[in-house]
Predict the structure.
Amino acid sequence: MSEKKDQKVCIIGMGYVGLPLAAVCAKNGYEVTGFDTDQSKLDIIAQGKSPFYEKFLDDLLPNVKINVTSDPKGIQGNDIYIICVPTPVDGKHNPDLKYVISASQAVANNMSRGALVILESTVNPGVSEEVVAPIFEKAGFVVGKDVFISHCPERVDPGNEKWNVTNLPRVVGSFDEIGLKRTVEFYKNITSGEIAEMDNIREAEATKILENSFRDINIAFVNEMAMSFARIDIDITNVIRGASSKFSFMPHWPGCGVGGHCIPVDPYYMIEKGKENNFEHKFLSAARKINDGMADYTVEMLQDKLNEVSMPVKGTNVGVLGISYKANIGDLRESPALRIIDKIKKMDANLITFDPYVPSLSSEKSLDEIMSKSEALVVVTNHDEFKNIPVSDFVKHGIKVIIDGRNCLDKKAIRAAGIVYAGIGR
């Protein structure tokens, strides 16, 4: 049985993962319903707009039809259900599956027999078998007969203009061959990317964890090298460029912290899963400790460099440039800026902030405004607006210290202008 485009698709969760998926499904001829508990978000989508900035969505949404509902009964009658809800970690870094559980229960309570259910939310290996499937079984469905359950981990990269849901390669695992075949056929209808079929659903779950743990570990490695190189006056950005001349080297770049929903979260899923099986993930734990500590390191640099010009942190006008976790978007999920801001506040600085993509958390309304009020600047997000600031503007506004948490400014020109500069490992 192949998945025909005249089938009805319901997307549970209209966030960074679910909304682009819903839009692309609608563009490819599916009748689409989007479910979310946030009615204000649905009201925006109903107007053909996105509640968050994503360039290809701004172009696509006005030209497709997505039915939206916050009523669980409104998701009845669909052939395919795709769960795209958050899977955060709690204060102790344990995976919080409450959204996956509630979404699965909503689908199980309202679907008809024969439906295909695809979990796109990132989970640790075993969740589909131990958490999701039992919900449907308790509702009276036999997996592989009455309901077909698959996992296709999301790979959304907000703000990436090259890779999005229309062309990303996907990984699919299922409980049975029928579910696998139906899921593969569905994704072939909406993406030009390659579809990798796993032998079982647990392998599909593990793929996403491996991908993001790989990145977290490599970022932690260069962060550690950056802190070490800084002590012996070596610019790590030049070293990475040099090392990249070797064909086998994969460059990763240091920074003031790792943000987003995936990289700083997913390794904890495997760390906790390892504990359940009497295994200690020493490598993953070390990487998490290093990357989580970069916010502290950045604030320590600010303190050290202010001391060089005989200024305390307390009472100094410190401007933080950037609040989102990534350049040119307004996504705050796990943003290191939030930790850096909190730490600077606790040191009694006169803290001011600006992010053109996060006006709601910006104390100042423009770049010129924050520059005119600051004595020291901490660049936390490498928005294009910040990367292109002329050095003459720093001089004009009397900036004495710059902490470049994304290594995106011209170190030599800034120092030549008499401003104290420090980057991450440079």
Summary: The chain is about 40% helix and 15% strand. The two ends are 58 Å apart (CA to CA).
